[in-house]
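Bit of a strange request maybe. I'm writing a small parser for structure token strings and I need a real example to test against, not something I typed by hand. Could someone generate the tokens for this chain?
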Amino acid sequence: RGARCDREHLRMLQMIAQASGIDLRAAGLIDGLNADADDGNGSSDSEADDDNMASEQSSQGAAGSNQNSAANNGETLSDSPGDWHLSFILRIGNVERTVSAADNIFRVIYELCHCDPVLKGANPWMQTFELQFYVESGPSLPVSSEAPPHQLLAHLHGLHVDQELETSIGKRGASIVQLLRVLSDLTPQARSIARIDDMADSDRLFINHKVTAKTARQLEDPLIVVCSALPSWCYRLAGFAPFLVSFETRLALLQATCFGYSRNINYWQNLARRERRGSSNASDSTQIPLGRVQRQKVRISRHRMLESALKMLELYGTPKSILEVEYYDEVGSGIGPTLEFYATISRCLQERELGLWRDECSPVPEAHSEYVYAPHGLFPAPMDSTSVSDSTQSSEPADALPPNDRTVQLFKFAGHLISKGLIDGRILDISLNTEFWAAVQRYLLPASSIKTATPWSWAQLEAVDAQLAKSLRYLYRFVEAKNEIYTRVELSPAQLQNEIDAIRNPDDQAAIADLALDFTLPGYPSVELRQGGAEIPVTMSNIHSYIDLVAEWTLHSGVRAQVAAFCQGFDRVFSSTCLLMFTPTELCNLIGQTVADDAYWSGSALRDSIKMENGFSLESPEVCMFIEFLELLDQAERRLFLQFVTGAPRLPLGGFHALHPPLRLTPRQAVLPLKPDDYLPSVMTCMNLIKLPKYSSFKVFSQRWKQVMVEGQKSFHLS
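Reply from user aminoacidic:
Good idea to test on real output. This should exercise your parser:
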């Protein structure tokens, strides 16, 4: 009888701890209590270790032990009888709230304080709260957790003002925000009509600095962020009116709400550690190791990298760990090889033979023979989604699938790769078209906020394929001529038809029949715009329908399956609805950072970003030659330089100044009888450290660097 009583007390203690967010096993309490209660629950640590050895992985951090602890706690609770359960009530003054197992205790306290007018401005740490729990008969009620914050974004992105938005900021404020939303949506059309192309800061026209500052202040409190106690208006304004908040603040909101508890804790602890290092009495001895993110190391071969990446991401591409990649027969490890892996796989997805993207004619064909040429960004090549199999499994090899099924699988992989790179802070070498991101956001919106027939515009078509837009404009002149004839009321039906048949294009006097067009998509004869389209000629009676169908298939119908697969893959790491916080242009900058910004490569920016060590200074001849060399690089050479030094051919957001660790220069000493001119530069990519020989002239400096930038790729060895 005493043993049963101890076990029931143990179960009660575990339920109280679980509802309060306390891990008793991690605190070292459960083991002793289990021994006293003679509880026979075992641990699966050895089994986990066997799995780790079988998969040849090397993991760091405490996430694995925490997961095993949570599993063991769940095993103990599963043995508890179902004839009773615990209920909790948190009370302060006259305000009380029932606390469920899905609640976070600090969030409940924070919300209680804001519900009481007296306590709204008070410090919650200075208050006394009463927590009561009751043992009630019967099984516990199902937990009804609130929708995650990111799910609020999709429901607030339509023009209809959500009732909860009015609750958050008031009816008048919601109406003002709705009006601003309409004006913001009309701005691109106004720019197009007014032919204004030089509005570089147009995306910042509607930013409200007070709202931005207030949102940033909410994100400065670690407990509010980690415990998901942010005010609802932060999510609702970011979803319905992202143009009111600056891009940097919305990016911080994304990281705070969508990247998970461990990464948030890790971010705040790293920030606190850097602040302590800057103080005179810095000490890490009191640091509590909370929220350490597990690092998943995987070793792959450089042969058949795309197939290896498909399998690797399927196994290890989870949000719980940071992925690090190493290569067989190479000693390099850390962030350098990992960044090179993301860059290489990004380029593999752009190979012409895969047929994933629209491909334009390059002005220099021999320079782009292997990869598609898309100067305005990648946009999916259209395909007939009706031919895609519903039973396609991601575990099947891509080469063994039918072409359209393979395309869907690779787009799912692309979404998975981008979301994993985004949450791990990796740089991807892929530039997606703004209209692709617009199509993704249309897919993510609820059906109630999307019109049944999605309109298209000439600006959208030109952004995707300028040559196709030019050809359709040529055809539209036939439509304009026909419409002009219909306005002549004096013509009889027979005369009207004769006039229409006599229409010629004013540019080359060609008739529509001379073009020999049918209802298939230009450039993709296998895609029929309507059933039996290959046998339907384009005439003056159906040319308008032909133009609409070509544009609609190019922008919407022909890419719907690829966009859906991309979002499904993206959701493997975190919700793709979080992308609704950003404009398509912002997503292009966030995912496919560019090296084209000359401001990052100016002498002043480089001097502010580069750190010197071991005797180097800004006045050193070698440093001056290095900065001069970087200023003279063209776009292709910049990519080679970044690939060699950092592992990624692109800069992060913010340029060189955003590199972590910062780019550093240190002298490389020559060993007799060799001279400095006999050495090549070498780098430590994981530390962004360049070992620079003291070359005798700028000519030698330039020759050695251009040699190593070309020959030192795709290999990580000791120098």
